[in-house]
Amino acid sequence: MKYSIIWRKGNPQLIRKMKVPVLAIMLGICTAFAASAEITDIPVSQQQQTGEVRGRVVDAQNEPLIGVSIQLKGTGTGTITDMDGNYNLQAPQGGTLVFSYVGYATQEIVVNSQNVSVRLIEDTQTLEEVVVVGYGTQKKSEITAAVSSLKEEDFNMTTAASSALELAMGRIPGLVITNMNQGDPRSSIDIQIRGTSSMRGSNSPLIVIDGVPGGDLSLIPPEDITSINVLKDASAAAIYGTRGSNGVILITTKRGNTGGGEMKSTFEYSSRISHDYIYREPDMLTADEYREYMQSGAYNSGMMHDFGESTDWQGLLTNKNNVSHTHNLAMSGGTRTSNYRASIYYRTFDPIAIESESQNWGARLNVNHLGLNDRLEVQLNFNSDFRERNGVGRNDEWEQAAQRNPTEPSKDENGVWLEDAAYNSVNPLARYSTMDDVTSRGSWLLSSRATLTVIEGLKVSMLASWQQSNETRNQYYERASKTSKDSYAGGGYARKWSEKDVRQVVEFTVDYSKIFNDIHSFNVIAGHGYEYEVEENFDAYNTGFMTDHFQTNNLGAGTGITSGNISYANMASAKRDNRLGSFFGRINYTLQDKYLFSATLRYDGSSRFGENHRWGTFPALSAGWIISQEDFMKDLGFINYLKLRAGYGVTGNMPNSERSDDYSYMITMGTPANTDQRMKYPINGSWQQSYGPVRNPNPNLKWEEKREFNFGLDFSLLKDRIGGTIDIYKRTTVDIIDSYNAPMPPMVLSSILTNVGSMSNRGIEIGLNGKIINKRNFKYDANFTFTYQKNILESLSSDLYKATYKEWQGLPAPGALGNAFRSQEGEPTGQFYGKRFAGFTDEGKWMFYKKDGKAVTLSEILPEDLTYIGNGTPKYQVSLNNTFRYKNFDLSFMFRGKFGFKILNTKEMFFGNLNWLPNNVLKSAITKHTELQDAPQYSDYYLENGNFVKLQNMSLGYNFSLNSKWVRSLRAYASWSNCFTLTGYSGTTPELRDTGFITGYDARGFFPATSSLMFGVNVGF
Fold first, then answer.
1. What single string gives the DSSP state of each residue in 569-638?
2. pTM for this model (two decimals)
3. Strands 206-209 and 104-110: what pairing?
4. Which of 208, 277, 667, 928: CA 20 to 30 A from 911?
5. Under 8 Å between Cβ of 603 and 223
6. CA gap 57, 815 in Å, rounded
7. What SS3 class is residue 244?
8. 965-996 in b/e burial notation, b at 16+ Cβ within 10 A?
């Protein structure tokens, strides 16, 4: 019901909101399609050159196949079969027709008559597919490690993905992709493979785009991706050494079409528009409910004030008529020796929250050329992306809107923004109107690869790439803003920030393949790589402006710089760089097409470590046995393929460059922030800067090492109707890098970065896929994934450095409530640590359990009474993808679920407490929590079961059957994303961060949980 109401209300504005060029493009496409559909007369000259070819496409049972793609090879001419399997198109005698259909082997047939009919055979050779792995490819059947692969037809292309990797959400077991603020286009996704493995280093996988490590996902629009391959275990990722510790995601982009001798071009255009709406918002008191409680005389009601208005503060921050749209145009073509593909795209995101819009645009070019009698292949890739976003609308403003007194107007009778003296209270609309915050970012990646075939089976390759991003941020608070008045004496605040990041990669590889005596197959690859990364940033701010006219364009006009206090003005710049040199090799050997062996070795050296441990060695071994190839399996007809595999590997990790750890091993000098002046002293009437050590040296700092065992089973049953994989793994990370208390002396500072401790992770991953129904006009395919994982912090101490636990996530004010999480030796990560709720006194005061089980008041609780009260990391994650096809229609939907975890509801902790008055509170404060008459406290009282099942998306599409020389394909679809969630959690959404050490934490700040309705078209010319 909510779905239909929102769609009806939003529809008129939806059309008005669209830009004129967008309407023109879409109307133009529809007009072209309509006109082309009416073209039936073909000029005589053209009939003589081509002629009409008709036919019928059926399966092995002579049942017609609907929607089969028929393409005239080397041209843009094509069509698809209708509901009876029939087709017709213009084609010359001697031309080649290419018949392709998902799940069936592609066939090419030369035209020698006016009737060309074909019987397609189900593709039972999927195991012969070539899968991209590190520094090369392998047949799917020969892979001995935990590698998952997604092709374009497996992607979820019917969602307004903010990141290319959202195409793989719920598709690969062990790969966790979370977008907590789905409705915020400025938010980033969290990506993790097989749990947490490091405290100080990165826990995100390495992204490799077209062979270039360290790729930027923002450079790749989803429409340009052809495959996503995930290297999950150490035996697969060890070829990437230091950067493969958290797994590797290999993204391959689309390349140009190869035609015959004549250059032919094709065009593809896709467009989609979407509308977001809030599907669940915090249930705060309305103005009438606020007044009713104020007049009740109940607890703290005397603190409340009625200003005589009824203001929907959250509604005022909601962009109810939002419309976002995306456009992508790709052009491709080529001959046998040269081809290209170019694409351009534009996206504008008009989200549910005002003052948070963004837009981005970019272009991509891929060129491939063969020369030297086809012995030399050269590839060139260029990717660019430019984006601009408004940073004014943030979680803070939504938190302020939620708790704002609903009887209070936004302005007084003179039109001046109203503020009040209540705790933590800011008028969000006033902040929006008196603040500017714009971030712009430009990124590009240029890469080239040249591959020379020296002799048969021996190839030499060189890759070179340059990746750069430039980002700027301009921020200004007007003189009349509350921030300016409270913090800068009404003088305004202006800030300029910029950062440039450059990454250069050069790699040389030699690849040799050979088959001996038809039973021995070898592939050997060896290489050398070098990477250099440099980052520069600049930051300056000033206050004390006489006018708002300059905004951020004249920082020198402010007087705050003369105070010498960094709270009023400061200027800073920094530069960091790091280098990585590598030598690597891999040997793959196959015996009799059923015994598989692989060995990998990588030797990495990083400038982030001192001379004592600069280089690290990372080996891996794996083996596989294709049991179904054995003679004793021949009679088991229901088993088509069965492979057992096992592997062991070591990968490394290093300090995270994002935390300024590039120089972790050496002593560095700086300006310790121990005073507002940062060690500045007045000398002769001016402020002079002093310097001192800010980091202790540690020449023995070394790599973290992740050692992983993986056992897997791949299978295909019942004539390939059911297939899947099962993986069981255990990994241990040793020599974990983190900060510890340092002895003084000999150290000059109280902390040092060093290697101490270990973690273990174990889990089970299951992926199943099946062709459940395969009838003439109706097909049903399903894909199921299951993931179980458990992380244990094994140790935290050594002979020299001691620690029994680490704590994270300090809870917000008011009250010194401490940290929410504690990880202790021998305990799982993601553990909530706090008090155990024992009830309330007659006066509504808190009672908690002591260590011995006795219920006492808060004043009697001691630190030793605190304990582990729950875990925020899901133990189990599942997904079910369903695709139905009926004639030209297709329907798909995906369920996702997470189980076995708790959520700390900090919104309930503060806003569900009547002590938060006179600010607004949740309705639960006067219903569920009426017995509570005490200040907020952290305990298991606010831990809730986080289990949920979500209908992630649903899509309905239609493929038009065309007979047109202008439009070869047309698909239209409608989709619904983040449809609904079944959960017992009382907050707005249980979809929270579940990567790293802070999991299941529902922060106090609000941002709307949204659903999205979308309509899209894909057109091929």
1. -EEEEEEEEEEEEEEEEEEEEEETTTEEEEEEEEEEEETTS-GGG-EEEEEEEEEEEEGGGSGGGTT-TT
2. 0.85
3. unpaired
4. 277
5. no
6. 73
7. helix
8. bebbbbbebebbbbbebebebbbbbbbbbbbb
